[in-house]
Structure formats: C-alpha cells, structure tokens
Amino acid sequence: MFVAGIFTKRTTEHQDITGRLWYGVFLLFAFWLLVKGISNLPAPGVGLKQPIYPLFVSLLPHSSIVMILGLIILIMGLSFVLWARANLGTNWSGSVTYKENHELIKRGPYALVRHPIYTGLLLMFLGTAITIGNVGGFLGFPVLFISCWIKLKQEEALMIKHFKEGYMDYKKRVKALIPFVL
User: Fold this and answer.
1) Do the Cβ atoms of 81 and 120 come closer than 8 Å?
2) Closest CA to 62 of 121, 147, 132, 11
3) Are 104 and 170 in contact (CB under 8 A)?
4) What is the DSSP letter of 89?
5) Which residues contact 159 (CB under 8 A, 6 or more apart)?
6) What residue spans define the domains of the chain?
7) Where does residue 87 fall: left (phi above 0), alpha (psi -120 to 50 degrees), or beta otherwise?
8) How far apart are CA 57 and CA 72, in angstroms?
9) How far apart are CA 72 and CA 26, in angstroms?
10) pTM (two decimals)
11) 3 φ, ψ (degrees, to nearest 5)
C-alpha cells in the first residue's frame, strides 16, 4: 500500500502533526497491547520475551476452530482493505489529506461503508486477537476502534469542507464502519 502511495495525486491540503498524534497514539497503544500479550512469539530476534501480565492471559482456548475463525476474519479484513485501496486509487493517503482533483469515491466497498479501510483494519485486528486469544488483543481492539473513530471524524470534516452537500448526502445514506449499523 505504501509503495502504491508513491503514485498518488499531489496533496493540496493535509492535517497538522497534532491531528496525526490524536489517532496515532491510540493506534500505537492498541498494537502495543496486542504485542505485549504474546507470550511465546515464534519469531527470532523480535525481543518480546517478557509479556506483561495480565495481557498474555488467554481468554479463548487455543484450538483449531478458534484459530481458523480468527484467520477467516483476518483474511476478510485484509480483503476489504485491499478492495477499498484499489477503489481509492490515486486519492489514497495514509494520513488525512485532500488531493489535487480529489474525487469522492462511493463505489465498491465505499457503497457499503464510508471508511472501509478502517473496517478492514478492525476486522484484521479482531481476527488476530481471536487467533492469539489473549487479554492484550481484546483490550487493544476498542483502543484501535477509538483511533479509527478519531481519524474518520478528521477525514469527514475535510470531506464536508470540500464536497459539502455531496458528502452530507453520502453520509446520510452510508454508515461509517459497519453496514446498516454504525
């Protein structure tokens, strides 16, 4: 995604560092909770030999069914992220920006939710938390949700500023993260 980001449109407006910090701190904390709960990380050199109690306490059994369920949710989330990214094309950015000749994308996954990349990231994190089954992952999920919610509110303010009624109509028709719910 980041390599493809090199080929995006030129940015004409971007958020300041304070805006990035608001959601970035929550994002980092969510992943810290997830990672610090992994007690037996099978990757050499990662240096996570000291998980933090109670983050590593298992909430789910380590069974094939639980792991397969988590993996299915993770793959669904990844697929949704990739589909959304493909539909955004050259409008994509990793931060809150407005691009030259920016388009309001309402097709593909954007017809289901206004922020499908965040929906996909949340599903990926949830799938990982289920697969690992520890307290850290399940505590990290609502923290990641807060990060996504902060960032989507920042993006929506920018979209309303530039697309006005077009975005307001879209917002009335399509939910933010969960189709027909939220």
Assistant:
1) yes
2) 132
3) yes
4) G
5) 104, 167
6) 4-173
7) alpha
8) 23
9) 25
10) 0.88
11) -65, -45
How many beta carbons lie within 10 A of that of residue 110, not counting itself? 19
Class of domain 4-173 as given by CATH: mainly alpha
Token digits for 83?
């589909």
Span 14-33, average pLDDT: 91
pLDDT, tens digit (0-9, with 9 covering 90-100), for 27-59: 999 998 988 877 555 555 555 556 778 888 889
**Residue that wins the pLDDT comparison between 18 and 44:** 18
For tokens 């955004």, the residue is: 88
**Which residue's structure tokens are 């799938």?**
127
The pLDDT of 154-169, averaged and rounded, is 96
Burial of 49 by CB count in 10 Å (0-12 exposed, 13-18 middle, 19+ buried)? exposed
Q: What percent of the chain has a predicted confidence (pLDDT) above 70?
A: 90
